Amino acid sequence: MFWDWNYVWEITPTLLRASVVTIQATLLGFLLAAVLGLVLAILRMSKTGWISVTAAGFVEFIRSTPVLIQIFFIFFVFPEFGIVLPAMAAGVIALGLHYGSYCSEVYRAGLENVPKGQWEASTALNLSPYITFRDIIIPQAIPPVVPALGNYLVALFKETPLLSAIAVLELMQTAKILGSQSFRYVEPITLVGGFFLVMSLVAAAFIRQLEAYLNRTLRNPGGAR
Amino acid sequence: MTTPMVKFDNVTKSYGALTVLDSLDLEIAPNEKVAIIGPSGSGKTTVLRMLMTLERINDGVIYVDGEPLTHMQKNGSLVPADERYLRRVRGNIGMVFQHFNLFPHMSAMKNCMEAPIHVLGLSKKEATERAAELLDMVGLGDKKDQYPSQLSGGQQQRVAIARALAMRPKVMLFDEVTSALDPELVGEVLNVIRRLGTEHNLTMLMVTHQMGFAKEFADRVCFFYGGKIAEQGKPDKIFSNPEEERTRQFLSAVLEAG
Amino acid sequence: MQLRPLAVCAIVFFTAGLAVSSFAGFREFIPGLLQGAAITIQITIGGSLLAVVMALIAAMAKMYGPLPLRWLAVAYIEVFRGTSALVQLFWLFFVLPHFGVNLDPMAVAITALGLNVGAYGAEVVRGAVNAVARGQWEASVALNMPRALALRRIILPQAFVAMIPPWGNLFIELLKATALVSLITISDLTFKAQQMNQTTFRTVEIFTIVLVVYLALSVLITVGMRTLETFAARGIARGR
Known about the structure:
The complex is a heterotrimer.
Chain A: H1 5-44, H2 49-64, H3 67-77, H4 87-112, H5 116-124, H6 129-159, H7 171-182, H8 186-219
Helix pairs in contact in A: 1-2, 1-4, 1-6, 1-7, 1-8, 2-4, 3-4, 4-6, 5-6, 6-8, 7-8
Chain B: E1 6-15, E2 18-28, E3 33-37, H1 44-51, E4 59-64, E5 67-68, E6 71-74, E7 77-80, H2 83-90, E8 93-96, H3 108-118, H4 124-137, H5 153-165, E9 171-175, H6 183-199, E10 203-207, H7 211-217, E11 220-225, E12 228-233, H8 235-240, H9 245-257
Chain C: H1 3-21, H2 26-64, H3 67-82, H4 85-95, H5 105-131, H6 134-142, H7 147-177, H8 189-200, H9 203-235
């Protein structure tokens, strides 16, 4: 028998509880990524040479190395410097850091797409750089890139199984434990796969809707005339 | 009367609610040179694109050399042609585009050899000879190994003409072939077309904005307006003494613009 | 754009130098690290080859295949993009044996990562093919070329140049994903790092060095793809 429905019903509640951890890790990780990404993007656009180069180097470094090693690094190396983090926190920080680097590129594209004239007009009105950023640039730069950020939210969600490597009891780790208890891996791992597939497809459909909505509204702010 | 080389029989083309061509009837004799003029959006380019099978038609039948082009005989009735049938009949027609559409990753020679080798089944030697001869004819004998990006617009368009001729079509379609060119390059392309007209047995259809060339070169001029042929006839008559008010307005607008 | 290799290289040499100079026993670990790196490179190359093949097949099937084949391609792309690489790896590793398919871990690793990245690659191929000017298809029709010939000789060679940068990113994603294979008992670079960590407790140095090795491999891929791009762009003169 390849597939045992009774077993499926037996393990479903356990997996559902674990999926809460997966979703928590996703949302916390992405919150971090969204904030960190914006900070990195702004640093990278800094006129001070060493700040922008350092920020760029950091982003490239994070993007060029495996997130799994980054998770290990934060979980195993930070304690050497006296920073002991629980597994979940270490995992969330690593995912946030990794996807923050990706998000910074998205923000940067958004910021660079705001016409130069907006900066010049703000200068002409004698707005401070901070106010210009907050009230003029950011409101124009962010909405168009929301779908791209959404794609990274989905990507981060799909990377959460990596937290099983440091024994966070999220979906994958729970599935592995269930598998090792019953020697049946088919059902738990397939269910986990199914869960990710459904969530990703739903999210992708949602992002498409959002994109279409933004395309309509951004081209015509203030509604139809 | 001989069979017409091209015959549009009650052909209609529409995109949704927009009718681009409205029950078009048009016959073109072998070796006839027809210029199609008219304002933009009048459906003139669509005529060529349908004939090249780049657009499906909604109603009617197009015949080329007496054979249905868009339809094929099946159990005694005409049904829309499938891809295999299209490939057989399409060989009669060649087309030159407004934006040249040369293959950017192939030299001028290779552009002219690709289809003869792989579609007509010519040997490499035959294809090379044919391509070299045609490139000589369009005056690009010394540019055979250049890539499209290394050629001027006029030279690219002449390569495109040679490429189409290498397939030995009976009908050549020219779709605003000088519209994308800088003014000083128009002449060299028109000269090549002029030579084709006198030295080869080709039926030619051209959509053009070059009224002077149409007047001198074409056997017949068709003025399209709103998806129909509003007026047609000998160039002398159309250009010097049009019957329709719309034709007169169009011509005076074009000639004024220069 | 030249900033990337420069900045990243500077970091490589700086941190590697720091780590090595502070790590007396480093020499003993070089053979182990090299072995691990060799496995990582093998899986990266094998997976990349599979990914390119799968991407081409899936993209062609999705765009031009008959209906059942098209559905199959869509299902492949959506399933492998919609579930995570680790789930796919575990599925092949733990579940396939239940169906009587016993692949050795290396084969599982290459298959899982190749299929995963291939699904993303299929969309890259599709995007690049769709980005070739419509006039190129029209010219092919006007020259009476069958679709397969036009695709092979006219469209794909032009799409190829546009595909190189996104494929570079995908190869780097694949390299990064090879770290996952340490979780199915393959002794790649990550696996070796953990092993050494457990025996020596030189955590800082080991993980720093391993990060830098991955970074160096990424830079290598970037530089390789840039070279390929320059080379290809020269052969395929762009523009109409």
